[in-house]
């Protein structure tokens, strides 16, 4: 089942790339394996996927210890500062940097471990009260702060689009994040390079790819309901 689901997702991604003149090699599917057991994760691994996403530090660390070492683990969930130390060294990319306090902690802990950490800023594009992340209006004030970090490097933006029935409703959200990335790159903030957009989930990854997603995060579409 999981392997068939995965093939379908990859097929849909190929069509989306083709339709928007993009190269499949330039986009990355993150299989969101949160709450899922290792045997299912291994099925996806055996089909060639190496990028997996988790939203809880304990689960990510545990799975990274138990599963093959060439898996790239992406931290996609809200991150508490007291969990940062445990996470660092186990993740290839933190998608969910949603406050300066968290960024401060990541940089400090990375310094202690003498490692460099890549992160994405979570942007609450639709300004939903229920969601974490920076809103567009505060970016001008917030982005210069990242220049002070020596060990944390910002490589792009992530967003969780609203839960909608028709993915087309989120097209404007993805367009807007893409536009923000272009605008902000032109401003050349120190230590901020918006190279990667992490956007699109099971319900809307095709639309997100058409609008410029570099990472799509698909859970249910591969592993089934949680
Ligand atoms: C759970 C989760 C996903 C995957 O959601 P699906 O709808 O199951 O594909 C993607 N991104 C984040 C941040 C998540 O927490």
From TrEMBL:
GO terms for MF: pyridoxal phosphate binding
Cofactor: pyridoxal 5'-phosphate
Name of protein: Pyridoxal phosphate homeostasis protein
Organism name: Lachnoanaerobaculum umeaense
Physiological role: Pyridoxal 5'-phosphate (PLP)-binding protein, which is involved in PLP homeostasis.
Pfam families reported in the protein's UniProt record: Ala_racemase_N (PF01168)
Record-linked NCBIfam families: YggS family pyridoxal phosphate-dependent enzyme (TIGR00044)
Alphabetized UniProt keyword annotations: Pyridoxal phosphate
UniProt keyword RNA-binding present: no
Lineage, opening ranks: Bacteria, Bacillati, Bacillota, Clostridia, Lachnospirales
Family according to the record: Belongs to the pyridoxal phosphate-binding protein YggS/PROSC family.
Residues annotated with N6-(pyridoxal phosphate)lysine modification: 34
InterPro entries: Ala_racemase_N, PLP-binding_barrel, PyrdxlP_homeostasis
SUPFAM superfamilies tied to this protein: PLP-binding barrel
UniProt keyword Hydrolase present: no
């Amino acid at each position: 089942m999981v392997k068939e689901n995965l093939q379908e997702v990859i097929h849909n991604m190929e069509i989306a790339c083709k339709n928007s003149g993009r190269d499949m090699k330039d986009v990355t599917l993150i299989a969101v394996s949160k709450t899922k057991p290792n045997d299912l994760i291994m099925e996806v691994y055996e089909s060639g996927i190496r990028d997996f996403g988790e939203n809880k530090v304990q689960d990510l660390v545990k799975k990274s210890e138990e599963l093959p070492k060439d898996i790239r683990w992406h931290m996609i969930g809200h991150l508490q500062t007291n969990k940062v130390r445990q996470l660092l060294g186990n993740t290839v990319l933190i998608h969910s940097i949603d406050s300066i306090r968290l960024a401060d902690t990541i940089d400090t802990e990375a310094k202690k471990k003498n490692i460099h950490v890549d992160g994405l800023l979570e942007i609450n594009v639709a300004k939903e009260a229920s969601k974490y992340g920076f809103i567009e209006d505060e970016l001008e004030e917030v982005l210069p702060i990242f220049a002070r970090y020596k060990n944390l490097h910002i490589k792009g933006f992530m967003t969780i689009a609203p839960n909608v029935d028709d993915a087309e409703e989120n097209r404007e959200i993805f367009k807007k994040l893409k536009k923000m990335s272009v605008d902000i790159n032109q401003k050349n903030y120190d230590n901020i390079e918006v190279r990667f957009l992490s956007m699109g989930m099971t319900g809307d990854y095709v639309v997100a790819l058409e609008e410029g997603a570099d990472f799509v995060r698909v859970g249910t579409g591969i592993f089934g309901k949680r």
